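Q: For a teaching session next week I want to show students how multiple molecules come together into a single three-dimensional assembly. I've collected the sequence lines for a complex. Could you give me the predicted structure tokens for the whole thing so I can convert them for display?
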Amino acid sequence: MAVVTLDKLTKFYERGQVPAADAVSLEVNHGEFVVLLGPSGCGKTTTLRMIAGLEPISSGALSIDGRVVNNVPAKDRDIAMVFQSYALYPHMNVADNLAFGLKRRSVDRAEIARRVAAVADTLGLGGLLERKPHALSGGQRQRVALGRAIVRDPKVFLFDEPLSNLDASLRVSTRGEIGKLHRRLGATMIYVTHDQVEAMTLGQRICIMNGGRVVQVGAPLEVYKHPANTFVASFLGNPPMNLVPARITQSNGRLLVKVGAHLFELAAGRYPALTAGAEVTLGIRPEHIATATNAAEDGRFASIDAEVVQVEALGAETIVTARVAGVASELFARLGPDPDTVVGERRAFLLDRYAIHLFDAAGVRIPAHAAEA
Amino acid sequence: MAAAKRAALLLVLCLYTAFAAGPFVWAAMLSLRTTTEIHRNHFAPPNPAHWDKFAEAWFTSNYAVYFTNSTQVVVSAVVILTVVGSMAAHCLARYRFRLNRVIYFVLFSTIIFPPQITIISLFQILVQYGLYNSKLGLTLVYVAIQLPLTIYILESFFARIPSDLFDAARIDGYSDWEIFWRVSLPIALPAVATTVILNFILLWNEFLYAVVLITEEANRTLPLGIQRFIGDTQEDVGMIATGLMIAIIPVVVIYAFFSERLIQGMTAGAVK
Amino acid sequence: MPAGHQETSRAGALGKPWGTIGAFLLPSLLIYAAFTAYPAVRTIWNSFHRVLPRSDEAVGLANYAELMRDDIFWRSVRNTITWACMSPLIEVSVALLLALALYAKVPGARFFRIAWFTPVLMSYVVVGILWLWIYNFDWGPVNVALRALGLASWARAWLGDPKTALASLIFVTSWMWVGFNMVVLLAALHSLPREVLEAAELDNCGWGGKLVYVILPLLRATLLNLVVLSFIGKMKIFDLVWITTKGNPLWATETVSTYVYKRAFEWTTFDLGYPSTIAALWFVIVLAAVLTLTWLFRLREKLEY
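A: Of course. Below is the structure for the complete assembly, covering every listed component.
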């Protein structure tokens, strides 16, 4: 395990073009599991490949355990990588695939045999050692790819979207395997994915990237609850956070927010930096919206009238889509299992005032005091 | 990669290019010089460049005849090959019937036949039917020898067309022939273009069958014509070189415009 | 029905549309039958006869017996098989080296690829004449260069000397076909899975390691394919020999195909039976050789990815 430090890593593929990775800075601690999360093209894979040494670094410094490794060739960085397509050697059987890296490093034969046996045991590959990759299922290949990395006992593990080629059920179980692996080995792991579920469940910290830049770094729940901007806010969460344009007004010394045709008070003193007249984006997650059969407005909840447009009963919960007068986009609400609501109905939806996020005109979060219970 | 290593590699590659292309460059230079100039110094660049030699070769040395014959034979053969070959390929690719793979294999396996196994009898047959020494006879033989390759290339292409398209066409009421003509062929146009170019080049350069089946001067194709030149005017290097240049012009033109397609067509099937 | 081939016409209550199938296939099958199948059969028939301009005389296996004693035939077989064995070795290995050089992202790769492919496009007639000149004793570039380098004793009549004639011709076909093989190998190299090579990189493989442990094993199928193609091509060779040496000097470059031609059309015996015998036997030999080669290679080719 090791400390990996990225200091303003930048990658230009073509001079004068937009960089694929732009001044990416991140510190990964000993034994930490960090996930690089973002949509395709956000630079997460480029960053990972720079860490691996498969992509030359245009500018910035990459250090492993304090030593700058920009110009150190990939094979000397003591890094193992699990590729998206597994990258198993098609002409070698599983045992040879696992042993290859060690053989190339002149590890003693007995030691190789021992390690391969141990890994095969851990990952349940015992009966497959003689098979070639084409005779394995997707999940089995994935495990061999994992095994190949483990057997090297590297300082850092890198994962490049390893689950994206698996079908849904396998993905869930393998995700669990990877998590267990990290707890067992305690190794430093850097994991790239576009899937927020993987990020939320596996990462001790997630680093959200967009357009080549780091947007926010933090523990998963932290980032979920306090997104730094509208991009992060809408990227995490399914269904995504509701984001609507709004305007701040003032009345009697209290700040009010106008959403479409609705006007309601914000939680007092919660947004110290907010001023009247500001154009903002109001965000609220679907799980923080409730319904009431009577329009009761109390200190905690603001009420908003909307017409139900769609009801999706999923069994454990219900996703209700509603249209608010004067607001272009539809509102998603996550309600309980029994949908006591029908399409076409006009209902009052209750918004938890302490769960409201405000973002300024540039999409940046307006700081808020913590919610009061 | 170290700069020195890269430079050395580049040098080797340039040397090889000189080796590969050198003979043609030399021939091009020779084609523009008179034989006397050549014998003074075989390697000097053309000075001045005698472009009129091309006209001379064309008109006084019968090149016009050879060129025309080649064009007639090859173009006809390619047209017939394209029509007949694509029909067969379409059928083999899209219709299921018990003999399908047998027929495909039989047609395709003739690619390994050494020409000798057919050429003697072809000679006899063409003589028997009065097609010996005729452009028609040669054309038909040319179609036969290129048929396997054409069907091979087209069949794999036709087979890859998603069957949904054919189902849709069928529902729209198209007949089998119309489906071939309006669905298969247009979609397979790139592959058809490839076979056209490939067949053209291979047949334009074809020598063995021509030399056996054509003996009359008036019907000689270009490769035969050039060969006769060697026998006739052994020492007129300048004129032969000019003739060579005329012979390769169509190939060079096609290569200039279609190099990618030509390379892919010729190497298809060799990559596994 | 092979995978990927889908039914176009529904059999339905009418059964297979034999009429349509027939219509599509008939022209090709007719041409095949008339100009390939029938002639092949007839040649074999010829081989059991003396076929003179006005009569045919059945002679059973006499032609074959004579063939076994025919020194020229066996010389030509030796020449042709030598050619067919040496060429693939030279052509494919040199092509592999060149392809690896281009694969290493040398600038101008596109240009090189196009330039090196050109010899393949030219007619053997053109190539033959060019190389007659190149090998010319007095003024051909080869000898001129040798003399200029002070190696005048090495200069010789390359195509006129029985000891060097065949090798000189093999050199010419290599010159032609290296470009072709190189293009194929380059395409194969580019289709190698990039991530597998990167994994090898991380597994401590430099250029040499990657070549030996990953690239060559994965290229094997293509390499073998090219070897077989080259072999078949040289077994059939005719044009180049006919233009340059016609089998001379002293049968040093005589190939089976030139011998067949000579016996059929140039010797004054006018008997087409004997050359047919040569053709028939050669046909069997080529078929056997190809089948053996592919069987040998298929045994070890269980690669799939």
